[in-house]
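Listing S7. Sequence submitted for prediction.
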Amino acid sequence: MIINRAFIREVVTTAIAVTIIIITIFLVVRVMGFLSQAAEGLIPVEAVFILVALKMTAYLDVMIPLMFYIALLMVFARWYRDNEMAVLASAGVGITSFFKPVAVIAVGVTATVALFAFYLTPQALAKGFTIEAEYRNSSEVSGVIPGQFVETREGSGVYYVESYNRDENYYENVFVYKNSFNREGVVVSAIGYRTLDPDSGHQFLVMKNGTRYEGAAGTPSYRVIDFETYALRMEPIDRTEIHLPVKALPNVEIAYAEHPLLRGEWYWRVAKVVVFPVLTLFALGLSFVDGRGGRATGMIAAFLVYLFYTNLLGYMIAAVKNEGFSSSAPIWLVHILFFLLGLVILYRRNFNLPMWPNFGLMDRLRELRA
């Protein structure tokens, strides 16, 4: 049917546009966060965009249902506002006629969310966590940034390089301050580069054509040494064993686990798959726009439903993790409750009934006035 194809195409186009906007905002926020970590020397600059991409992948299972929910509301609202829904209704195409295209969208979105929730999100979180842990366990020079003073993690030294020559792969105008064995030392050189000793596994900062100043100026122990090659061993960081967070664990480890945290995480992955089909009922029922009334009422109600629905799910899952519930029954009760509420709203919208029944109060008020 032409109408169904046009509706699906417009929803997908709108969802892509909304997703691009939200992802752009997400990227800006996350990039700034990781750049601050790179400035502190916790991670190298070249890892920022890798970590941002992994973080974005990890959040898509939550973002995709919201984006398509917004797209459904926007498309329906626009069709109501432009009287296209009125024209379709006069031709016998009511709101229930959109069950088929909405179901097609729901199946596609649900399958995509399931792929992310059960596979891609845990993989992305695990990969990102492992990368961050490896960088934190690496040597102290891993976060040297050209043009910035970077303090070592122990606070016993400072590194500064003026620039980095990418073609030749070396630093230019290197400055290093180290305080080791109660002796202060400053090393400056024209160029420097990092190298790894294959035998010991230690990482060195090799500097060329420089000078080392050792001790306190004015004391007998003060020395100035010119050198052609000087290798400074980077102090290794005490490596800690990497333990993946619960959100990054594979499905086989949490699906039948008895621990409340693992059980709650499994319920949350399942809940993310169920949310969008329920939300489509509210999109059909609350997207109506009355030309003589406010245009934002339905949209506001739809967003309130989404916030209340997802937050109530989050509360129930948190209760499972805190051992407040021993089964998933309360979580499924939330799904069923909102599913029935969506059916009621859709039913009343289909028959042009008031969104909320007044139980005869308006008739009684009219009788009292008469």
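Caption to Listing S7: primary sequence and predicted structure tokens for the chain studied. The chain is about 55% helix and 15% strand. The first helix runs from residue 2 to 39.
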